[in-house]
Structures are given as C-alpha cells and as structure tokens.
Amino acid sequence: MFSSILTKIATPLFAQRASFSYKTFSERYYEPHLVAQNNLSEVEYPDNYRRLHPVQKQVTPPPGSKLYKYATRSHDLHGPEEIHNKLVFKQFGIQATYGGELKFGHFEMLRLTINRRMEEKRMFAQWRVPQPWKGKTKRSLGKRMGGGKPDIKFFVTPVREGRIIVELGGNLTWKEAYRLLHDISMKLPFPARFVSQELLDCEDEISLYIQQHNVNPFADKVQHVMLKNYAGSQEYLSPWHFEWKSPHFKIP
C-alpha cells in the first residue's frame, strides 16, 4: 500500500521531468536580441563569389623548377598572430586559440559544410588563410633511414594563435552564425572558437580595464621583469617568450 502511494506521488514528478526539454547555452539568450544585424541593402558583400572557393591540394611549381622541401620551421606555429587577428567584415568567424596546421582535408570540410548550410542570397563566407603551401616530407612505412630528405607527402597551412580562419557575414542572426560555425570549429586539428565582433570588442574592453586598474606594480614592466630575471622568472621562460615580449603564450 505504501509503495502504491509513492508511485502515485512520484509519477507526475517523473512525467514533468521527462517532458522538460533542455536547451543549449546558445539558445538561452533573450529572443529580441537575436534579430538580423543588417538589412540586405546595408551589408557589404564581396564582389565576386559569396561561397568559399575550393583550394588546391598541392602547390604547382613554376616551369623548370622543383618543389621546395621546407625544414620543420616550428616557429611558424609559435606565438600570437599579430596581423590577421581581426574580423574584416565585422560580423562572425572562426578564430584559432592555439597553433596548428591545416591540411587539405580540413579546408574541404570547412568549405563543404559552410557552403551547404549557408543561404547564398543573404550570406557570404570568405577565407582568411592561404591555401596549403608548406610541404611536409614523410618516409613510407618500413623504409630504412638515410638516403637524404624524403619526398613531399602533403602540404599544410601553418596557423598561429589568434588567427582568423574563415569569416561569415550577411543578413543573419547570432544564433544562425553560431549553429553554422561552432560545431565546425570543434572539428579542427587545433583548439578554435566561434567569435563575433561584439565578443572581440568586449575582450578588448576587459583587457583595457584590467590594464588601467591593475594594482600590480610590475604589470606594465613585464619585459623588464623578464630581462632582469626577477624572482628567477627566466627558469620558466623560453627564448620565444622574449621574442614575443610576453609570458602568456604557450609553445605548441
């Protein structure tokens, strides 16, 4: 009898819990904020092609020359990106949060997914990274060492931290851009994130506020502290940190 009473009490609770639909974090925003940013007449569209164009799988050498076999050149991945770290069209994009390399398959994944999901009448996408240009050599399985540098196996595009990989713009909402780009950014070979112009502006304001209100007397003298080896700080630094003038970046 007691068990039957518990069943009658608990049944509506479990039914209510089962009927509750969980929402992702991106869907909890207030709906009036999710309006289109611009009208069709106000958006600055590219002149030629609105979709992502295909890239070449390998570099075509000039006539009478061979493909150059690069060294490892790990400095292509180290440190922050100082040039292509802002959104040109001031809307949405994918930004790398760590250094890495993009292969031809990653370019195709980005191109096919974005072109299939976007509406060309009111959206556009643009590459912000060059096509694969750095040749990577690799020996075949079971081959002996020696015999010189092996042949080029594939090509990659090195990416540094903070680099904008692709941009998305047009007459679209934040939710549409998030659903289109977020899951793609999680499939890249290095950590990346979905960014908007509002997010980048907010991060700049926060960093400026911290810089102005920081009570640490050495906050503005980071390079001086590194060079003078205060508190043995050089034990935890590398020559790359002195080149970047900041200890806040990790080495891939």
TrEMBL record:
It holds the Pfam family Ribosomal_L16. It comes from the Eukaryota. InterPro entries: Ribosomal_uL16, Ribosomal_uL16_bact-type, Ribosomal_uL16_sf. The keyword Ribosomal protein applies. SUPFAM superfamilies: Ribosomal protein L16p/L10e. One of its GO terms (cellular component) is ribonucleoprotein complex. Gene3D superfamilies: Ribosomal protein L10e/L16. The keyword Ribosomal protein applies. Keywords: Ribonucleoprotein, Ribosomal protein. Belongs to the universal ribosomal protein uL16 family. This is Large ribosomal subunit protein uL16m. The lineage of its organism: Eukaryota, Metazoa, Spiralia, Lophotrochozoa, Platyhelminthes. The gene is MRPL16.
